[in-house]
Amino acid sequence: MTRSVTDLHRTLKIGRRASRTACDAERRTIVDNQSVFRSRWHWRRRVRRK
Which side of the chain, N or C, has fewer Cβ within a 10 Å radius? Predict the structure, then answer.
């Protein structure tokens, strides 16, 4: 079975898009985790001061 060049190009494009969305999701998760960690850390500092 032979694929045309456009089919191959389309497949590569879809693959690239999928990996990009996965990277974005991963990055978002990392940023979310950091913001949660920071907010907890600030909250603890406020509690200790009182």
Answer: N
5 three-state secondary structure: helix
Helical H runs in the chain? 5-49
pTM above 0.70?
A: no
Write out the two tokens for 38: 């920071």
Question: How many separate domains does the chain show?
Answer: 1
- DSSP, collapsed to helix, strand or coil, labels residue 10 as helix
Token pair belonging to 23: 């990277």
Residues 6+ apart with CB under 8 A from 3: 11
Better-scored residue on pLDDT, 2 or 36: 36
